[in-house]
Design a protein that fits this description.
single chain; two-stranded antiparallel ribbon; about 15% strand; two-stranded antiparallel sheet; disordered N terminus; alpha+beta; about 210 residues
């Protein structure tokens, strides 16, 4: 190997050794109940940069916060979609549950139900429901339909509605939490950038004074 290549390899190795150990754990402070990290707010940017060996540069700190910010934006997109899905599913569950309860009540009261069903576009037929059978078919998704008794259907739909409402509340809280972390990340990046500008300004002034001497 030539002396030039050896010198380049040595310089590269020394450069890698001089890069501080920066990871997302360095700028996070735990996580919430569902594993979403809590971004660390830096009170003193200079002291935080000096806490690494060697001291972390503004570019390195901003790069780490940018990566974390991207993760939060991914969380935000996923949670927003999940919230929209739950928001549309819950009313459907409520409607289905109310319908099964109505069928059960009419069966118990010995009432007769005449309903219309579609034969073709704008063409309907009439039918009398056999409530004595006491069962309904529920779509479970993925082209799967199962038959339930009224009692089992009410229990199943009630449980699913409760779980969906609980999940909706968790998603809503997580979405607000993630948006707070996004704001904190953006504020931190701005503070790091401003700290770096002030630092370079001071170094420039000091360098000019040294040259004058």
């Amino acid at each position: 190997m030539s002396e030039a290549k050896t010198a380049d390899a040595t310089a590269a190795t020394e450069g890698e050794e001089n890069i501080p150990d920066m990871s997302l754990l360095s700028i996070t402070d735990g996580e919430n109940e569902r594993g979403i990290p809590v971004v660390k707010f830096i009170d003193d940017v200079g002291a935080f940069a000096e806490s690494f060996t060697p001291p972390a540069s503004a570019e390195l700190l901003i790069g780490a916060y940018t990566e974390l910010h991207s993760k939060f934006k991914t969380y935000e997109i996923s949670l927003t979609q999940k919230q929209a899905n739950l928001k549309s599913k819950i009313p459907e569950m409520e409607t289905s549950l109310a319908l099964v309860k109505s069928l059960q009540k009419k069966r118990d009261d010995k009432e007769t139900i005449i309903t219309r069903y579609s034969l073709a576009d704008d063409v309907y037929g009439k039918a009398e429901l056999d409530l004595d059978q006491g069962s309904v078919n529920l779509w479970l998704g993925a082209n799967v339909m199962l038959e339930y008794t009224y009692e089992d259907a009410i229990e199943f739909l009630s449980k699913n509605e409760q779980l969906a409402r609980k999940e909706f509340g968790e998603v809503k809280n997580d979405l607000a939490f993630v948006r707070d972390q996004i704001v904190t990340s953006e504020v931190s990046m701005t503070r790091i950038f401003n700290w770096d500008v002030r630092k370079k300004r001071v170094e420039k002034v000091q360098g000019g004074g040294d040259e004058a001497k």
